[in-house]
Design goal:
The complex is a heterodimer of chains A (485) and B (165).
Chain A lengths: L2 H10 L2 E8 L2 E4 L5 H6 L1 E2 L4 E3 L6 H14 L5 E10 L5 E11 L2 E9 L1 H23 L3 H40 L5 H11 L10 E7 L2 E4 L9 E8 L2 E10 L13 H52 L6 H15 L4 H12 L10 H5 L6 H8 L1 H9 L8 H7 L20 H16 L10 H10 L7 H12 L8
Antiparallel strand pairs in A: 1-2, 1-7, 2-4, 3-4, 5-6, 6-7, 8-9, 8-11, 10-11
Chain B lengths: L1 E8 L6 H10 L12 E10 L2 E10 L16 E9 L3 H17 L5 E6 L11 H9 L4 E3 L8 H14 L1
Parallel strand pairs in B: 1-3, 1-4, 4-5, 5-6
Antiparallel strand pairs in B: 2-3
The chains are: A alpha+beta (485), B alpha/beta (165).
């Protein structure tokens, strides 16, 4: 390696290489770093000499000279030492002696900031050890500290148990309030009965809640000298009061008869009661709004359906009656309220597409020609096209489209079969046939309910859903259902 | 100028470095720094009309003499044993160190420093035990690197005894 690079490299590593000449005099092989002059006398341009002091390096050089003299291989390490420099700075050094090609080489290493940081880490570890050793110097100390620690652990455990009780109580009450509130009255009763469980001495605790002009109490409630209370407010308006009593004087804590956390518990419950009243009130308002909206919606659908009657007086009331029959069948089949509602709404407007059929075809007495019948058949598609633009949460448009489909695929417009047809539609189809046959038509007098029931029974499982037919027959034959005029 | 080497010996954290710092620079710091390897310091003092340079070897504290590098002690003219008044085990340790060192370095003077006297609420070593050591011929000083109590006196005593040799 180029000597120049070699010396610069050693200097960059904080190292110096020296060759021993004699009597602790050295030739400097590397760069002449400033710190070298602290360890040696600066004898000349190329050589340095140790001042032969009783310092660490001097001590090491005694061993190093013997090592060089014996021509030993390997190296002799000095171990690390630190030296206070004339500047007051403390520097760490390490030295090693080597015999290389009969030359007596001394390598010196100056440690930098990384070494100091590593020492600081070791320092921290030793400090911890010392702290531990200081804490438990003797067995007697250990016993003393053990008992102190045990007492502290017991105290904290007892505190923790109390906090757990309070939290459990609050959690149970919060759960009650989180559920859908069916009745505030029941909620109030449950909350009052849960409150004692959150206190230090539950058997000695009574609670009273005064709200909405009602009073709810635990069985053991009574006015005593040992009470805490908090008000229940909604929008800064006081709507009630929650009180807790100790029925007899219990163990008094440093903070008084009731723990500060117990006072906080009462405040937390009161705050939650205020919120639950607010929520319940909002829930009630929402329910009322929903009911009003529903009624408005159905009224609108009904009004929509009656538009058709302006064109076709013979079908006046047809949709309403179909809707009634379909609703009754759906109930007879134990469908949900929501499904019954869908069936009824679809029935109310199922012929809305007839608005596109010329009035004289709809109202004209006598049989229709094939062409006229084809025109009539378009009404289910028109009905679908009208209703699909309305954002119903239910498949009303599809039901209207399918309401002339038959179980065996002989219906129109898409010749759907079996389960391809919605259940709502299969109900509506039966209701439509029964109503149509039992009512007066422009081209014929009423055929009567018996013939209508005969028709659906004859085609049970062929054109009409058997369950729907059975339900419909039961309604008229066994349950006294009647068609209104 | 006369130059003498003295070694500080004792368990870790008994206050050897703080005692040296108090003696050399008259400074005490609460910050505790473990001595790595050996720390070399110098102090020139006037004694009996002579200038004496003390080269003080502050040797990293360990809990047994066998862990101290043997060559560290070479050329020493005296040594200071340091124990911590708040830790009885450190006194037991320096007594053991002394027994071992004395076998190799006959007649090399030493003093025993019972350090951290300022931590009065934490004393662990019985006063009667210290008195007994004095009675048995030990040169004992009750010192505090923090307050400076008896630090100068202890070094002076050792230096005097070294010069008498």
């Amino acid at each position: 390696m180029n000597d120049n690079i070699f010396t610069r490299l050693l200097d960059a590593l904080g190292m110096a290489a020296l060759e021993h000449i004699q009597n602790k005099s050295f030739r400097v092989l590397s760069a002449r770093s400033g710190w070298l002059t602290y360890l040696f006398h600066d004898s000349s341009a190329d050589t340095v000499k140790h001042p032969d002091e009783l310092d660490y390096l001097g001590n090491f050089l005694v061993d190093a000279i013997a090592f060089w003299h014996d021509g030993k291989s390997g190296k002799l390490d000095s171990g690390i030492w630190s030296q206070v420099m004339p500047t007051g700075e403390i520097c760490w050094f390490e030295a090693s002696a080597h015999n290389i090609d009969d030359r007596k080489i001394l390598i010196l290493k100056l440690y930098g900031a990384e070494f100091t940081e590593a020492q600081m880490r070791e320092q921290a570890a030793k400090d911890n050890l010392l702290a531990f050793e200081n804490l438990f110097r003797t067995e007697k100390d250990l016993e003393k500290y053990s008992s102190i620690l045990e007492a502290e652990v017991n105290r904290l455990t007892a505190d923790l148990r109390e906090r757990v009780k309070e939290l459990n109580c609050l959690y149970a009450i919060s759960r009650l309030m989180g559920d859908k509130i069916v009745s505030l009255d029941k909620l109030y009763k449950d909350v009052v009965n849960l409150i004692p469980s959150g206190f230090q001495y539950p058997d000695m605790v009574g609670a009273r809640l005064t709200i909405d002009n009602n009073i709810y109490t635990t069985p053991n409630w009574r006015v005593t000298p040992y009470m805490i209370a908090d008000t229940i407010t909604v929008s800064d308006r006081e709507i009630g009061r929650l009180e807790v009593c100790y029925t007899e004087e219990g163990a008094e804590s440093a903070a008084g008869l009731f723990l500060p956390e117990e006072q906080s518990l009462i405040e937390a419950i009161s705050e939650r009661l205020g919120k639950v009243v607010t929520r319940y009130s909002a829930q009630q308002n929402l329910q009322r709004s929903y009911e009003v909206l529903n009624k408005t919606f159905e009224d609108t659908v009904l009004a929509f359906g009656t538009i058709l009657e302006i064109k076709d007086r013979y079908t006046a009331g047809h949709q309403i009656r179909v809707a009634r029959i379909a609703e009754a069948i759906a109930r007879e089949m134990d469908l949900t309220d929501e499904q019954v509602r869908i069936t009824r709404i679809a029935g109310t407007i199922h012929d809305i597409g007839k608005i596109y059929v010329p009035a004289d075809i709809l109202s004209r007495p006598g049989r229709l020609s094939d062409l006229e019948f084809e025109i009539i058949k378009t009404h289910s598609q028109y009905g679908h096209d009208i209703l699909k633009t309305i954002d119903f949460p239910w498949p009303i448009a599809r039901i209207v489209l399918e309401h002339h489909e038959k179980l065996d695929g002989s219906g129109y417009p898409n010749r759907l079969k079996g389960d391809e047809i919605l259940l709502y539609t299969r109900i509506l189809t039966v209701a439509d046939v029964v109503e149509a046959m039992a009512s007066h038509r422009p081209y014929r007098a009423t055929l009567g309910i018996d013939q209508a029931l005969q028709e659906i029974s004859n085609n049970r499982g062929k054109l009409y859903d058997p369950d729907v037919v059975d339900a419909c027959v039961r309604l008229f034959m066994q349950k006294g259902f009647e068609l209104e005029e | 100028m006369i130059q003498k080497k003295i070694c500080m010996l004792g368990s870790f954290a008994v206050g050897k470095t703080s005692l040296v710092r108090r003696f050399v620079e008259n400074i005490f710091s609460e910050k505790y720094l473990t001595t790595i390897g050996v720390k070399i310091d110098k102090k020139v003092m006037e004694l009996k009309n002579q200038s004496l340079t003390l080269v003080i070897w502050d040797i990293a504290g360990e809990n047994g003499f066998h862990q101290i590098h043997g060559t560290y002690l070479r050329g020493m003219s005296g040594y200071i044993l340091v124990a911590d008044k708040t830790r009885t085990a450190t006194l037991d340790n320096v007594i053991n160190i002394h027994k071992t060192v004395a076998q190799v370095f006959h007649d090399v003077p030493c003093v025993l420093l019972m350090n951290k006297m300022d931590l009065t609420g934490q004393w662990d070593v019985q006063e009667s035990a210290i008195d007994k050591l004095s009675h048995d011929g030990w040169d004992v000083f009750r010192t505090s690197a923090k307050t400076g109590q008896n630090v100068e006196e202890a070094f002076q005593r050792l230096a005097s005894r070294m010069l008498e040799k």
